[in-house]
Amino acid sequence: MELYLIRHLPTTWNKEGRLQGRKDIPIKKVDQKTSKRINKTKKRLNKVPITKCFSSPLKRTVSTAKEYGFQTPTTDNRVIEFDFGKYEGRPKSEMLADISSIWYDNVEKLKLGEQFDEFKMRVDAFIDEKKSLENVLLFSHGFVSRYILAQYRYNDIDRLNHIEIPNNHLTRVNI
Prior knowledge:
This protein has six helices and five strands. By secondary structure, it is an alpha/beta fold. It has a five-stranded mixed beta sheet with strand order 3-2-4-1-5. The longest helix is centred in the C-terminal third of the chain and has 15 residues. It is globular. The model has no long low-confidence stretch (mean pLDDT 97).
């Protein structure tokens, strides 16, 4: 399977450096610069026969799919963002002040609103179920996208929080 990942468009919380997690935050109004980036990415995607389009059920990912012309993506709870628990809505810097060694060096011990193992199981179950499809487009989140890259491209889970994926970025992963 070729998996095409697009991290959702920016939200006000992204701009403010706040963790969103499961909070259902809408995207910001699409400006001209973002619209140009979307059109450029759409041209790349038009060269690929997308078998199926999926999205996290949160507004920011479904709205991003719609901006890309996918009006009814199939939503799947297994690709919803990681649950950051008490840190959701707070600056990421606060979380890092408390748990940076786990975040960067031992992510498998991460335990906030959900345990990392639970997160891993649900995302892996999604991938395993869809791997027979050819070209899958997934509109998702930063942590989910970084996990998929670390696990399936690099085979190195310790890289997860050392990878940066900006909003509205297309990444291709061969599964």
